[in-house]
């Protein structure tokens, strides 16, 4: 199936020191179970402080869907359970204890879609899936119109999925075949041109329902929302899921061995380091431990995610595979309020569409009308232009191009939240 011009996009450059050779495995002494980005989740803790939990063991479940569980990324003892008002999950912190063991699941009966769905939910793999529109984890009984498996990543400092999946092709094959049973629609495997993972989708035992989508090397070519917009747009009544290819391999491993792999390839990079590194770590990893021996002296900022769409954090976010370390910028001298009033506009000016903004949207969206719709809060026009397939990360490069005036992600989130409330009413 053909796609939009794979030469579209930009290649933003951020400074980073040379990368140390090889891949180091790092299991941090502390780790946290955090909810995926999206609506806050009401949960029921399944453990208490002081309990010993095996790696992959359930620590909490959704209050209104108890089969959907959250798994411990390491074997350890529960140190702290933080819940927000309404028993909404903030974080569950674990102290590492290697004798905690590994949780095993019975996957022999997972031969039908309902059985597979139940296994993924009880094993704690369901939060690895993300739905559109609106974002967040799919509902317990939701059936997607299509699924996008992201086997390429064009964000700055992103680790190469081909390298992450080296030697795990069989697990990826099993995972793809399993995903295909969860939808009556297509499963798109988005790959970089020349990726050896294309051979996995060509296998005769899984090729039915799997469509290859070659992507270019410039960002945002690998943003799931940009891919969806061109191949299979999400709609209010047609949810579309996306998931990283490494997580699909974890699904395949779960079905084969009964244990869910918690490790992933993570790149640590940024101008605040003495050397960059590739590590095999886990979600919820302690960013301080990951960077303490390679960070430059002095104050710096730890970010989970890329320089474009990452955020300051203590723990590696559930879906992130990058850690960015930046020097802490100096505190700007605060000018008198009258000077600020005379030199800064009271209301930020509109974003002006440029060729760079068009490329920052992957040349997939018409920048002028889309930016006007976001700025005016025109949900109907924005939906017609592709809003429902997008999340904040898909517009991160556009905001970067706009510099300090970039606020497209916030405008889009406001529109999406408004639409979700209207659609739920």
Q: What's the total helix number?
A: 13
For the secondary structure, the number of strands is 18
| Helix-and-strand structural type | alpha/beta
Separation of the first and last Cα atoms: 38 Å
The residue-averaged pLDDT reads 91
Helix content: 25-40%
Largest sheet: 6 strands, mixed
User: How would the global form be characterised?
Assistant: globular
Computed over alpha carbons, the radius of gyration is: 21 Å
In the sheet with the most strands, the strands line up as 1-15-14-18-16-17
Structure overview:
The longest helix has 17 residues, at 408-424. The protein has helices at residues 113-122, 161-164, 169-180, 198-201, 224-231, 245-257, 287-291, 337-343, 355-360, 367-376, 379-385, 396-402, 408-424; strands spanning 19-25, 30-33, 43-45, 52-53, 58-62, 65-71, 76-84, 88-96, 130-132, 146-151, 187-192, 210-215, 240-244, 264-269, 276-281, 300-304, 311-312, 322-327. Helix 3 crosses helix 6 and helix 10 (367-376) runs antiparallel to helix 11 (379-385). The protein has 425 residues and is an alpha/beta fold. The protein is 26% helix and 23% strand. It has a six-stranded mixed beta sheet with strand order 1-15-14-18-16-17. It has a five-stranded mixed beta sheet with strand order 9-13-10-11-12, sandwiched between helices. A four-stranded antiparallel beta sheet has the order 2-8-7-4, with no helix packed on it.
């Amino acid at each position: 199936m053909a796609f939009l011009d794979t030469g579209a996009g930009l290649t933003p450059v951020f400074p980073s020191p040379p990368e140390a050779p090889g891949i180091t495995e790092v299991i941090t002494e502390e780790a946290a179970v955090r909810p995926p980005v999206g609506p806050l989740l009401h949960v029921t803790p399944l453990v208490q402080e002081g309990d010993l939990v095996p790696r992959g063991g359930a620590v909490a479940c959704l209050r209104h869907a108890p089969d959907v569980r959250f798994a411990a990324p390491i074997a350890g003892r529960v140190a702290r359970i933080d819940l927000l008002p309404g028993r909404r999950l903030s974080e569950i912190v674990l102290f590492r204890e290697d004798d905690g063991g590994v949780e095993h699941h019975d996957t022999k009966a997972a031969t039908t879609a309902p059985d597979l769905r139940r296994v993924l939910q009880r094993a704690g793999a369901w939060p690895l899936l993300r739905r559109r529109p609106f974002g967040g984890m799919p509902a317990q009984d939701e059936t997607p119109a299509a699924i996008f498996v992201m086997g390429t990543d064009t964000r700055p400092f992103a680790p190469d999925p081909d390298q992450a999946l080296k030697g795990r092709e069989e697990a990826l094959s099993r995972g793809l075949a399993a995903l295909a049973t969860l939808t009556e629609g297509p499963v798109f495997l988005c790959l970089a041109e020349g990726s050896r993972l294309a051979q996995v989708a060509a296998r005769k035992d899984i090729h039915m329902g799997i469509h290859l989508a070659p992507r270019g090397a410039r960002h945002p070519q690998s943003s799931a929302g940009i891919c969806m917009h061109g191949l299979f747009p999400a709609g209010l009544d047609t949810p579309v899921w996306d998931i990283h290819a490494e997580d699909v391999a974890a699904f395949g491993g779960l079905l084969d061995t009964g244990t869910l792999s918690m490790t992933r390839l993570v790149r640590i990079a940024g101008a605040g380091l003495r050397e960059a590194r590739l590590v095999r770590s886990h979600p919820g990893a302690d960013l301080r431990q990951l960077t303490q021996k390679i960070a430059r002296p002095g104050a710096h900022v730890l970010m989970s995610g890329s320089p474009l769409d990452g955020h300051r954090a203590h723990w590696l976010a559930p879906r992130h595979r990058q850690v960015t370390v930046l020097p802490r910028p100096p505190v700007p001298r605060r000018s008198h309020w009258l000077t600020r009033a005379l030199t800064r506009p009271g209301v930020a000016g509109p974003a002006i569409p440029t060729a760079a903004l068009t490329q920052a949207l992957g040349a997939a969206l018409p920048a002028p009308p889309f930016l006007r719709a976001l700025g005016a809060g025109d949900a109907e026009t924005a939906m017609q232009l592709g809003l429902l397939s997008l999340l904040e990360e898909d517009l991160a490069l556009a905001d970067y191009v706009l510099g300090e005036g970039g606020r497209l992600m916030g405008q889009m989130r406001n529109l999406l939240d408004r639409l979700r409330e209207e659609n739920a009413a």
